[in-house]
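Propose amino acids for all 298 sites.
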């Protein structure tokens, strides 16, 4: 509700009363556009971009993306609703498989192979639905509490301990040189770190180590997860965080991946104002990094 007659010359932060807009405008990093999401007072969604030129002047572009935002919310809600609806029939199928497995051995021997395939596919669908529901939760604007002080170093330490127990034949090394806390959602951060380490375990040589580092680089709390796998062709890297995108479909089916792990990591990073960086070299391996803002709440 800006009036040309009354509002020319007034500071923008007085006209657009949004803390995120004020922080974005006063900051120096404008590489990623800012979204001003709908509120009870403002039903539309806007995208803000800032370009600096001349002697520190700024050119601000504001685009109404309300229709695009509505479509994104419809897709998110559809995925979430379908995932919920599929859980019941999947539970029924799982129950029947378990009942069949409890039959007399002489009967099971005749259907052992199809039963094993049914069980494997049911488990695969359970994991897929779990990831879809989790991704839908992360994307939800209602779920936006990032005010907990999280010791990501300790969280990672506990997670590595659990994964060492689950993967006893694999070497997972962890180094921690940063003691600071970050503001965030512990469950989301646990999910992101877990996905990165599990991916490294799945897609690297069983004899090679997975290296996890929690440190401070250039003032930013940073988590590195490195493997000595086959590496990723540079043409695939921009699409790795897309839902269901697979570099090697046959290998992903063997490892049991859903194709949603890195999409989850990306959305957790976005919701925490962090960056997900991917570096990879064919025949050498890959490093996935979460780079957080310097916002130690301690």
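Proposal:
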């Amino acid at each position: 509700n800006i009036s040309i007659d009354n509002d020319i010359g007034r500071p923008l932060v007085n006209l657009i009363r949004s803390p995120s807009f004020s922080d974005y405008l006063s900051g120096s990093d404008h590489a990623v556009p800012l979204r001003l999401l709908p509120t009870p007072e403002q039903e539309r969604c806007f995208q803000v971009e800032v370009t600096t030129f001349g002697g520190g002047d700024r050119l601000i572009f504001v685009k109404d993306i309300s229709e695009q935002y509505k479509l994104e919310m419809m897709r998110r809600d559809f995925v979430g609703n379908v995932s919920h609806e599929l859980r019941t029939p999947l539970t029924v199928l799982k129950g029947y498989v378990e009942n069949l497995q409890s039959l007399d051995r002489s009967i099971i021997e005749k259907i052992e192979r199809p039963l094993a395939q049914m069980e494997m596919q049911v488990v695969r669908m359970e994991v897929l639905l779990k990831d879809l529901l989790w991704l839908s939760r992360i994307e939800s604007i209602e779920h936006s509490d990032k005010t907990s002080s999280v010791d990501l170093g300790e969280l990672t330490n506990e997670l590595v301990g659990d994964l060492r127990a689950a993967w006893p034949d694999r070497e997972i090394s962890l180094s921690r040189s940063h003691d600071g806390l970050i503001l965030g959602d512990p469950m989301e951060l646990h999910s992101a770190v877990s996905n990165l380490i599990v991916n490294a375990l799945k897609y690297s040589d069983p004899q090679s180590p997975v290296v996890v580092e929690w440190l401070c680089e250039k003032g930013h709390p940073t988590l590195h997860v490195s493997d000595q796998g086959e590496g990723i062709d540079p043409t695939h890297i921009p699409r790795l965080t897309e839902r269901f995108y697979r570099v090697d479909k046959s290998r992903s089916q063997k490892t049991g991946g859903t194709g949603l792990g890195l999409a989850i990591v990306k959305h957790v990073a976005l919701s925490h104002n962090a960056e997900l960086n991917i570096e990879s070299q064919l025949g050498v391996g890959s490093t996935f990094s979460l780079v957080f803002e310097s916002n130690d709440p301690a």
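Residues 148-291 form a domain with the Heat Shock Protein 90 fold (CATH 3.30.565.10). The beta strands are 34-36, 46-53, 57-64, 148-150, 172-176, 182-184, 210-217, 220-227, 275-281, 285-291.
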